[in-house]
Automatic annotation (TrEMBL):
UniProt lineage: Bacteria, Bacillati, Bacillota, Bacilli, Bacillales
Record organism: Paenibacillus terreus
Record-linked Gene3D superfamilies: Medium-chain alcohol dehydrogenases, catalytic domain, NAD(P)-binding Rossmann-like Domain
SMART domains: PKS_ER
Domain Enoyl reductase (ER): 10-326
InterPro entries: ADH-like_C, ADH-like_N, ER, GroES-like_sf, NAD(P)-bd_dom_sf, Quin_OxRdtase/zeta-crystal_CS, Zn-ADH-like_protein
PROSITE patterns registered for this protein in UniProt: QOR_ZETA_CRYSTAL
Protein name listed in UniProt: Zinc-binding alcohol dehydrogenase family protein
Length: 329
């Protein structure tokens, strides 16, 4: 098989294609012939050496794949050879390869969703869509008519958060973006309005008034997260979903107490270690929304695996919307 291997921290040029032995399934596992692999911010951070304690070099990045079941290990039921699937690799990584080792609990049969989900969409969607679905339904427990603010609204995760929030009954859904050219995407991604992140506090207050918002979904972190707390209603909730800014600000617990704030965090990979069955079930439910057309996937670009470095550079430019995928097979 072919894999994209990172042997040292560095720029996009450190992504190197290597021939490796074919994989064989162990007990309770399957091997998938990978058709497409999702490209995400986490892959870039891994490449830069941000998570070497979790993912020491050499490493094959990639959190999510779509493809066809190649072989099935003992103890696995409910799948067949050649079946089209999407799977979450999460903390195991290994998606940037023509073969991937997957666990059944985190693998969704695409032919059982009751609709048509194309392979690129499946790879682009399974991690971010499941994260959005669980963050809205299980973490925030959104109520009918809630007012919601989503940061990085046109990104891989944000492009689903607005749609899922609307699906679960949100009344007003606002989002922030980093550049004005992304504002045109608002309606297609479920947003009532998209705002520039540079002045989102004042503009949000103008739209919703002094009552504030019921929930903020934030994968950005840093100053953005700190300023967002100003916008929460009493008993409103901040859901931390990432830290793309690289900044981390502590907030005084007395301020949280006196301000009647709820601050929650959700990391799909870490939660899947604790409860893979729950994550797998959520993935099926989330992808069924995609199959039925209730949610749409924004695939910004598809790159052959030989051009993985170009995909990384494009994502780092912050000029993309939705998701980039690599064509592996």
């Amino acid at each position: 098989m072919k894999s994209i291997v990172i042997e040292r921290a560095g720029g996009a040029e450190v992504l190197q294609i290597k021939e490796m032995p074919d994989l064989a399934p162990r007990y309770g596992e399957m091997i998938v012939d990978v058709a497409y692999a999702g490209v995400g911010l986490v892959d870039i951070l891994i490449r830069k050496g941000e998570f070497t304690e979790l993912f020491p070099f050499p490493v094959i990045p990639g959190l999510e794949v779509s493809g066809y079941v190649r072989s099935i290990g003992e103890g696995v039921q409910g799948f067949r050879i050649g079946q089209p699937v999407a799977s979450m690799k999460l903390l195991e990584l290994g998606g940037y390869a023509t073969q991937a080792r997957v666990t059944p609990q985190l693998t969704v049969p695409l032919d059982e969703l009751g609709g048509d989900v194309k392979m690129p969409e499946a790879a682009a969607s399974i991690v971010n869509l499941t994260t959005a679905y669980m963050a809205v339904k299980h973490v925030n427990r959104m109520k009918e008519g809630d007012t919601v603010l989503v940061h990085a609204a046109a990104g891989g995760l944000g492009s689903f958060l607005g749609q899922i929030a609307k699906r679960f009954g949100a009344g007003t859904v606002l989002g922030t973006v980093g550049s004005s050219d992304k504002i045109r995407l608002a309606a297609s991604l479920g947003y009532d309005e998209l705002l520039l992140r540079t002045d989102f506090v004042d503009v949000t207050k103008q739209i919703v008034g002094m009552q504030g918002v019921d929930a903020v979904f934030d994968p950005v972190g840093g100053e953005t997260r700190a300023h967002s707390l100003e916008l929460l209603k009493p008993l409103g909730q901040m859901i931390a979903l990432g830290n793309a800014s690289g900044g981390e600000l502590m907030h005084a617990t007395n301020d949280i107490w006196l301000g009647n704030m709820n601050i929650a965090g959700f990391n799909l990979g870490a939660y899947a270690v604790y409860n893979p069955d729950s994550v797998g079930q959520a993935a099926r439910e989330a992808l069924q929304l995609l199959a039925s057309g209730d949610v749409r996937s924004e695939v910004y670009g598809i790159y052959p695996m030989e051009y993985a470095s170009d995909a990384h550079r494009l994502l780092e430019s912050r000029q993309t919307s939705g998701k980039l995928v690599l064509q592996m097979g």
